[in-house]
Amino acid sequence: MSGPGYDMFAVTAHGLADLCAAELAGLGIAGRVETGGVAWSGSASSLYRANLELRTASRVIARVGEFGARGFAELERRAAKLPWQDFLSAGSEATLRVTCRKSKLYHAGAVAERVARTLAGVGVTVPDAVTGDDDDDAHSADIRGQLIIVRFMRDVCTISVDSSGALLHQRGYRQALAKAPLRETIAAAMLLASGWRGDSPLIDPLCGSGTIPIEAALLARSIAPGIARADLTPRRFAFESWPHFERASLDDVVRDARSRVRPARARIVAADRDAGAVAASRANAERAGVAADIEFRRVQLSDLEPAAGGGHVVTNPPYGVRVGDRRNLRELYAMLGDTIRSRRPGWEVTMLAADDALAVATGLPLTELLATRNGGIPVRLLTTACARTHTQADGVYQRLHNQEGTV
Q1: Which of 105, 118, 168, 249 is 20 to 30 Å from the Cα of 313, by its Cα?
Q2: In this predicted model, what pLDDT tens digit does every residue of 261-312 receive, in sequence order?
């Protein structure tokens, strides 16, 4: 390639790093699982492809540099030596996000001031700085220009730049919302961890705004989330404004992703008792270009039609934190278990649960696949299938991603 290589890191929600590493392996990228995500080194092309195709990552960042600093003069001197020219052009804007922990330089605002002074020296203005919050999703709507992440831990400063722009769960299709929407990255993780291979029936009987069925259709059709639109046009990424951005390389990555799109071979059903939820699901699926691959049904949970053979139920019932009350939810979870046993015998169930007592109320033999957070709420991903190792999940992803026509 003509531009520089990068040290990259795919940021994930808690509990999703192993699945993200499996996705990267399916893309031919060998990543290292670390706290908070997956690291690797590679070309601009691998950076572009990770942003376009990762289903479980929140964002992809590139490491500008890492160094020790116990004083502000040392911080400024070392920061000035970093290759800012690879990521920022003179006259551009940047937003700093700074956190400091267990370091002599503990005042995040003062650190931001010194880094901003360094950036001013290369012609970059910093109108905004966000300090004191290490949550990757925090203040994302307030970012102006290029996001730069500065993290001090035990007197070691790590500076990274965001390559994604809008968080990667923002596929662009989910504009119509039902109650307590599920993040797209979590829905994709549920599907990958469940072992669903894209060639057997799948139903979400509590579909809400349709995120799980839509992500299932995208996965089954091998549509990269970065082109999850009816016309398969790619979303915009922050790296497109970098000085060494390679338009031809990104075009090749997009072309390759489009070439792997295939027809769906599974029956995917989005069901809900609420007419507004079904309408929202359909509208979102149309924007994602997969409405024709999903059956939308307004139906009470207890009225689901019987189905013989095998399949998967993948769903995100209400948690009781935001929606409904505990008594009604206990009845809902019990009905979910009864309906599956009577109308979907032999089907595997994968569900999120924030309350162990509610999960027990299903009467299903559930085991934990992983623990994460959705909307700030701690949740566990549970399954009736035998406990799967991440190696097995890896194999499922690679079969879905790499094989044309068969999985």
Answers
A1: 168
A2: 999 999 999 999 999 999 999 999 999 999 999 999 999 999 999 988 899 9
Residue 323: C-alpha distances to residues 66, 92, 327, 354 (Å): 44, 44, 12, 12
The sign one gets for the Cα dihedral 195, 398, 212, 20 is positive
Residue 124 near residue 90 (C-beta atoms within 8 A) = yes
> Domains along the chain?
6-162 (3.30.2130.30), 184-222+264-402 (3.40.50.150)
Its pTM stands at 0.91
Alpha carbon distances (Å) from 378 to 13, 140, 317, 319, 363:
11, 21, 14, 10, 22
Handedness of CA 142, 148, 153, 154 (dihedral sign): negative
Torsion from C-alpha of 216, 41, 114, 155, nearest 10 degrees: 100
Q: Tell me the C-alpha distance between 112 and 99, whole Å.
A: 9
